[in-house]
Amino acid sequence: MNPGQDSTANTLRLRMHDAALENRAHRDELRAAFERVLDSGRFILGDEVQGFEREAAQYLGVPFAVGVSNCSDALVLALRLLGVKPGDEVLVPDFTFIATAEAVLRVGAKVVLVDIDADTLCIDPLALEERISPRCVGIIPVHLFGLPAPMGRLRAIARAHGLWLLEDAAQAMGASLNGRQVGSMGELAVFSFFPTKPLAGLGDGGLLCGSDEGLDLQARALRQHGTSGKLVSSTMGYNARLDALQAAFLRVKLARLDARNDARIQQAGIYDRGLAQVQGLRLSARPLGARHVFHQYAIRLLDGARARVQQALWAAGIETRVYYPVPLHEMPPYRDSAPFPRASAAAAELLCLPLGPQVDEAAQQELMERLSDSI
After folding, report:
1. Closest listed residue to residue 40, CA positions, set 247, 200, 180
2. With a threshold of 0.90, does the pTM exceed it?
């Protein structure tokens, strides 16, 4: 929805996302999955969750995957598994969704914000090295909007300083870097299955996965009150389980994830070609070897043009979105007086355009023409 506008004030012809249309393509299989769970009588964990975890781990190329209630809880569980404690510092990009930094506070540690790369919008390795202190224990790179963060450079920094890497891959299921899936390049990784994400559930859901099989059983205990299946807790845990119905739906959609991402990549290519020469606009980088799955297609509108362009598209019945209008360093829980010029610029300039089955090529062409005319 356009900021400051009532969604009923205008009839939108083109929306950012249409979950109903996306699900219609495999309605029969989703219904069959629902019936299977209904008939099983197993609604919490059980065979469906185990089946999804096995299939997700195989897809990602990781030793284990644990289904959890949502990605925010997955982040907290991951930090617990990594032994983060009060007084520790964790490096987080300044330009990302709140949940990344929030999880650090939830385990009592301190967020240390890092500016982003102006071209990719992901965490900047050079800026990161300047923020490392003796109290830092790890880095949470975010694969923002479906683009892999520069994991090779980040791994080298992490090794040099004795830090761990926790991949926030909430927006990037199916993305890869030099043929390696995101989620398989750090000690641990988390994913979101919120209904707009690349692997979209029909409700909330998340995944915690890792390269150290020794953490598998610990993760499963933490998601269920710190127990190993019996009514005895060995540590303080959480009620953070993925339910069987969501797991069954996700199994249907995981089998179609690559095709879904391929379609969005093709649509992004149309935008890339159509907008490449538009003055007053900047496109994000496409690093060599990175498979960007375009959870969002983001452009930069320069010289204060964003509000004008967004309003013109809204008036034409075309929805766009601003992610994220306030960088973390300006929010009270994470306030930091250090300069973050690239994150601040992105917050002021970024606009995301519609992608998905509700967007045909004619709609993309109209959007680009109207956008160009309004700059």
Report:
1. 247
2. yes
